[in-house]
Amino acid sequence: MEFVFTPEDHKAISSFVYAEAGILMPAGKAQLVYGRLAPRVRENKLTSFADYIALIEDDQEERTLAVDALTTNHTSFFRESHHFDHFIAEVWPALEQRLLGRGRVRIWSAACSSGEEPYSLLMAMFGTDRGAAQRFARTDLRILATDLSTEILAAAKAARYSQETAQSIPAALRSLWVKRDDRGAEVHPLIRERVAFRRLNLLEGWPMSHPFDAIFCRNVMIYFDEPTKERLQTRLADQLAVGGMLYIGHSERLAASIASRFECVGRTSFRKVAA
Ligand SMILES: C[S@@+](CC[C@H](N)C(=O)[O-])C[C@H]1O[C@@H](n2cnc3c(N)ncnc32)[C@H](O)[C@@H]1O
Fold it and tell me: Which of 19, 33, 73, 125 is deepest in the core (most CB within 10 A)?
């Protein structure tokens, strides 16, 4: 190992990332912690994790970089595509009517990582009709996309991906909504302009006051302990309109205490039925 990294150092980093982001990094994840933070230790020209831990005690900027390095940002376009299929078949038709009748539609991609999730949703909504996107450009449709990591949000806003990443967009949508060049692939402005990216820690206060018609909160709760999951799910339920949809990740479950507020309408897909 290039840097000294003791079990006590691991414990200190675990407590730090749990306090900052609710993320569990038990002893079995020591290798992962080392691999993700070693570049930060090197960058700061330190020789041990103990020195790095001392550094993040006072250096707010470095704390942010440490949390960014420790989070898992894995995502892809049309990941768990059954959620998009369900949304388009069962939810979107009524929302579309509401928008065309000058109503408001709000969707939240919570823990959006590098943006593939909200962009996939918009591509699915607009389909292969660019005229539809132009019509919706004049309606009150917004997708709020949030994440804890500032670095990943910068990538999401840039909306530039490798050719390989863009490959998981269905071909008919890709040819319309993604511009390819020799440096990669870029999402079309008509899609990008519907998304507002913001930094938000799911464990802290939420500034949003209006209810959402759908929330995608996928593949982030797996990193949290049971009390944190339950608290988060209660808040997500509070933030949804009655009739609104909550989509969660494939290995995530609803806590028993909030299950009665939802009806399960598909795989990891829940409709809010009671306030
Ligand atoms: C594995 S990605 C999931 C991305 C996307 N939702 C999907 O399913 O493909 C998890 C994301 O959760 C974010 N995250 C972790 N802890 C968070 C927290 N406390 N608040 C907000 N976002 C958090 C990470 O930065 C990361 O981008």
Answer: 125
